[in-house]
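name: query_chain
kind: protein
chains: 1
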Amino acid sequence: MNPLSHVAIIMDGNGRWGLKHKNSRNEGHKAGLKTVEIIIKETIKLKIKYLTLYAFSTENWNRPQYEIKYLFSLLEDFLLKKIDDLHKQNIKLNIIGVKNFSKKLNKLLNSSEKKTSKNTRLQINLALNYGSKSEIINAIKKISINNDKINEKNLSKYLQTKNTPDPEILIRTGNTKRLSNFLLWQLAYSEIFFEKKLWPDFGEKDYIKIIRKFKKIKRNFGKI
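structure:
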């Protein structure tokens, strides 16, 4: 049985689900939040220590302004309503990406991180305005500034996930098979599961099924 400490998820398909069921992409994003809560709950049950969720990429700024505005209003509302509950459950919230949002959202993100910073049951890495290529370039710049040797250990040390083990599993919903500039360095030896279901249709049974598959995989890491 393979040990499992970190699951990363590309939550794809909200917009398509919303158009299909509600004739609105925004309704899909709203429905996707319910799936987030289901997966957090199941991750705790399974005693997995790290969960990284790809919520908003650096490329997502190319979307219509009304959709971006709605996404951030959803996030603000979620944090205002749920951060105390997450804190009570001993869950730590950690933001990866560049915080260049509104003053209100930046303040809320910072206060949420601070409030939950000492929690140990589960760490949720929320990838917001995140792009892996930029992350790697910035890490190399920091290595240069500090006159460190360029090697794998030092590069990992300057990534935003520096205190987090690399994911053993990557799940991408939405029937799309690409990484979309997500954790390119960290996913080098992750087992990747592409799921046909759109994110709002993805449930605990689907999650458990993937984890059971992972447990049975023979992981060689280059060996025979």
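note: The chain has a mean pLDDT of 96.
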